[in-house]
Amino acid sequence: MNLCNHTYFNLSEADTNILGHVLTLYANQFTQVNSELIPTGVLSPVRGTDMDFNNTVAIGERIGKVNGGYDHNYILTKKTGELSMAAQLYDPRTGRQVEILTTQPGIQFYSGNFLDGTIKGKGGKVYKNHFGLCLETQHFPDSPNQPAFPNTILQPGVKFIEKTVYRFSVLNQGN
Q: Which of 111, 127, 123, 124 has the alpha carbon at shortest distance from 16?
């Protein structure tokens, strides 16, 4: 069992991409993927790489250096089962922010790489490449096939309990 929420976020205007959003991910590793975006089972450190969001950075700053854009599971730096901060996303243009807290061990960061203009949103706005992003709290993808990943097998009679909190705010921009 590996439930996640695939909500797209764009804290800016509907006709603006998310490359100017700044992101913090509280993770020291990520799960490497193959050319089809399937996890390989290898856990890689993020420190000093283009995958590192431990220090707040604009998404567009390094996205061109990541083959295909971001679509990776990050291994959260926290105690197992503890509700703690996983990510903070902020748009400096609007001051809008979302903080994501979770008990889950991972978070998938997807930068809207496959949005191709075929999906329309509110008011008929067309969602182009990078016009939304997802931050999906979850266990690691492909866990049943990766022995080193946390177990996702739900046995009969066992309760599945995880919690994710999305906390929205608008930060003072000095206006």
A: 127
In a domain, 80, yes or no: yes
The residues annotated as belonging to the active site are 6, 136
Helix (H) or strand (E) holding 97: strand 96-102
Residue 148 buriedness (CB in 10 A; 0-12 / 13-18 / 19+): exposed
> Residue 5: inside a domain, yes or no?
no
Q: What CATH number does the domain containing 61 carry?
A: 2.70.98.10
Task: Report yes or no on 134 lying in a domain.
Answer: yes
Instruction: Please choose, from the candidates 112, 63, 61, 108, the residue with its C-alpha nearest in 3D space to the C-alpha of residue 87.
Output: 108
Residue pLDDT tens, the chain, 175 long: 999 899 999 999 767 899 999 999 999 999 999 989 999 999 999 999 999 999 999 999 999 999 999 999 999 998 888 999 999 999 999 999 999 999 999 999 999 999 998 988 878 888 899 999 999 999 999 999 999 899 999 999 999 999 999 999 998 765 5
Residue 10 CA: distances (Å) to CA of 1, 62, 105, 175:
28, 18, 24, 22
Range of the domain at 141: 22-170
pTM for the whole thing?
A: 0.93
Domains held by the chain: number = 1
